[in-house]
Amino acid sequence: MSSAPSKSAHPASLREQKKQRTRDTLIDAALRLFQEQGFAETTLDEVCASAEVSKRTFFRYFAGKEDVVLAPSHELWLVFLHEVQAAGHEGAPVFKTLQQALLAALDQIATPQWAERINAARLLAQASPSITAQNLKFCDGISGETARALRCGLDPAGPEDLRPRLAQDLLVAAFHSAMEQWTRHSGPKTCADLRLRVQEAFVAAAQATTYSA
User: Fold this and answer.
1) Cα 124 from Cα 106, distance rounded (Å)
2) Which of 85, 96, 170, 204 has the most crowded CB, counting CB atoms within 10 A?
3) Helices 65-86 and 112-126 meet at what angle, rounded to 10?
4) Domains of the chain, start order
5) Is the sign of the CA dihedral 201, 202, 208, 213 positive or negative?
6) In this predicted model, what pLDDT tens digit does every residue of 16-51 receive, in sequence order?
């Protein structure tokens, strides 16, 4: 005889769905206004009014305007970090492990809405130094956590191994090159096209160390 479902499970799920909808509404409202009016020219009051939420609600999800713009990118890299931490990468080439983790993260969050958001966010970031600075801080934290995950089993008192961090720097450089090509492309912005460009960039990155001009 099967047990009855928990009474708290369903409401908790509904709460999470409502939180996600609110978060998505804030991101979409902010990106639209930033594109129409300019990032610096748009106020938080305008973003909240467009999303029909209070400032108090806004700050439950984001620390400021920069965080809203960077939300699509941060979502990808947080999933990437989880994939790296969960991977059984002992003995595997680190760069290959990182590639697989990033492609898995892309597959998990790939939706037409996410593609639109990440494209808009990248264009806004290119025109705003404050967004770029905020993103560098976030990326540095993700890089540190990833390097620590890749050093599992090594003696923490031993000599510093630069290879995990350099492998991730190469991965990030390849991803940004793919993103640059993707955003410059005049056709529809799809996750499938981005994934293909990322894979091509990974191949080029691996070949770059032996490339002769």
Assistant:
1) 21
2) 170
3) 120
4) 10-62 (1.10.10.60), 65-208 (1.10.357.10)
5) negative
6) 889 999 999 999 999 999 999 999 999 999 999 999
